[in-house]
Amino acid sequence: xxxxxxxxxxxxxxxxxxxxxxxxxxxxxxxxxxxxxxxxxxxxxxxxxxxxxxxxxxxxxxxxxxxxxxxxxxxxxxxxxxxxxxxxxxxxxxxxxxxxxxxxxxxxxxxxxxxxxxxxxxxxxxxxxxxxxxxxxxxxxxxxxxxxxxxxxxxxxxxxxxxxxxxxxxxxxxxxxxxxxxxxxxxxxxxxxxxxxxxxxxxxxxxxxxxxxxxxxxxxxxxxxxxxxxxxxxxxxxxxxxxxxxxxxxxxxxxxxxxxxxxxxxxxxxxxxxxxxxxxxxxxxxxxxxxxxxxxxxxxxxxxxxxxxxxxxxxxxxxxxxxxxxxxxxxxxxxxxxxxxxxxxxxxxxxxxxxxxxxxxxxxxxxxxxxxxxxxxxxxxxxxxxxxxxxxxxxxxxxxxxxxxxxxxxxxxxxxxxxxxxxxxxxx
Length: 428
Prior knowledge:
The chain has helices spanning 2-27, 33-39, 65-73, 93-105, 123-131, 152-162, 183-204, 218-223, 234-244, 267-287, 296-306, 308-328, 333-338, 341-363, 370-378, 380-400, 419-427; strands at 52-57, 82-89, 111-116, 138-141, 167-170, 172-174, 214-217, 249-252, 259-261. The longest helix is centred in the first third of the chain and has 26 residues, at 2-27. By secondary structure, it is an alpha/beta fold. A seven-stranded mixed beta sheet has the order 3-2-1-4-7-5-8, with helices on both faces. A two-stranded parallel ribbon has the order 6-9.
């Protein structure tokens, strides 16, 4: 009995610790008005000085690539200071043709279509192909489905001129919070990550970067050798690799200037995407680069962040047994009372998510739909199951040595209402 009680209490303590850390990181930026203000974009922009090379890797993105190129080409920044490189594998005729069609239709002059025929066919390999051709001051990554704000280059140019940053991680935000039952949860993950958690990572100097809207000094990223082509989260890997070597990384999130994206279209797509992220974290953890951090706190914080797929896997497997144990075994009163702490943590997280969704819809001027709020509360537990399945699948794939890139399909769900208006504005 004492042994069972020990493991039961240990489990509860781990759940409590994880919950409290997660809550703190999610709310970090709201702790003071100064943090909120520092997290936002500059109020005014400095005159354009820096030049930008945009790396736009794409694969089977014929549905969305045309408008992405179109939007980037219409940015509020001198055209001669922005060079856009669309990078595809040579066999992706659909994406290449769609890109060339939009370039011809609107006579876009600052876009180049680059193809490669060597392996692997993956985002990091495409980025490295494009990096060799980058000649401007700053290199920035966007994804094929991104809705990029016209002033994003002004934001980066101003921040580089006003700070000593080497890397700028700007905000990315999923938008279609009402498209599927799990979309609101997915949207909020991005919201809390880029709105709050990323700023804590930047403050302490341990930064697993996001996949797009990341600005690098071109000479610096070339000196680092570019991106790891064998890691499924090349974005997090390059962030950790560069921050261990002292690169200054800052984060910015402004509701107006965020890069807008869409949630995965199906549960299967979501689990595959989450599998890739989790497995990439495991790969970085195995690589041991994180041990080069200069303080014990950074090492432990990185270990905590990268090992989370293992933690999710373990929790997903043993939670049912712990629940059965709690009901089946007579525990001392104090332990029984302590058993309610995970429930309280979950309740707090649900409340935070509800307020977060309200704030998100406010910031993005989206219609608030009461049924979506209710659905989000009711499906909180089911979403945790999806996360657990993604973690288990990532652990299984890594143990089996399976590391192929499972692509997430994009349909432009987040931009359907704006396509016609955008094109009409150009025509007039």
